[in-house]
Each structure stands twice: as structure tokens, then as C-alpha cells.
Amino acid sequence: MNKKEITQLSYDVLGCAINVHREVGPGLLESVYQKCLIYELKSKGFKVMQQVKAPLYYKELSLEVELKADLIVNESLIIELKTVDCLLPVHEAQLLTYMRLLKIPQGLLMNFFSDNLSKNTIPMVNEYFKSLPD
């Protein structure tokens, strides 16, 4: 994928998330939004994976770590869902770490505990995105 395709994927996924948020509203558990969003994404033809295992290397030690990344869409975008009063820097750090370990170029940090999901979504890119062709 190139930068333009991944950016479009991000917009499309956000649109699906906004549809879920409009339909069910704020204040539910993260797991409810996750199930609804998976349904919405798959109905639009996206490939969705949950809690993917990724290798983690520490010096000579290789660990198979089960990451808690909520969703990966089309192997190019990580979605990290939250239902919190406000997003914190630790949430951003968590998403960036998942993106780096899984070598995924873009991520969306979404807080469904809000009246306006688009204003409570933080898009993030990393070095893998920057190295993609335009």
C-alpha cells in the first residue's frame, strides 16, 4: 500500500466507527464497540484481525507476546479502542509501540466515551508510513 491508500483506509475506518457510535451512543463497554466495529468493517469488506501475536526481541531472547492491540485492518492499520474520560499520553505510547512491534504504518486511537468520536480520535503514523511511496 502507498500513503494515499493507507490514508484513505484510515478515513473509511473512521467512517465505520462513527456509524457505530451514532447507532449505539456513548457510555458502553469497550468490548461492545469492538464487536460492533468488527461487524461494520467486515460488512464493508475489510479484513479484520484481533489480538495478534508478534515476536518481541530483547537481546538474545525471543518472546512470542500476545499483544492487546484491539484491531488490525487490512494488515495496515491498528485501531486501539478506549472508553475513558480522556485519552492520556500512555494510550498514545501504547499504540505507537504496537505499531512498531507489528510494523504497521498507521494507527487510530479512538475514545468512544464522547459525544463526538471524530474529535476524540487521534491518527498516528510511524517510520513505516514515512518510508511508503506516495
TrEMBL record:
InterPro entries per record: GxxExxY, PDDEXK-like_dom_sf
Protein name: GxxExxY protein
Organism of origin: Cecembia lonarensis (strain CCUG 58316 / KCTC 22772 / LW9)
Organismal lineage: Bacteria, Pseudomonadati, Bacteroidota, Cytophagia, Cytophagales
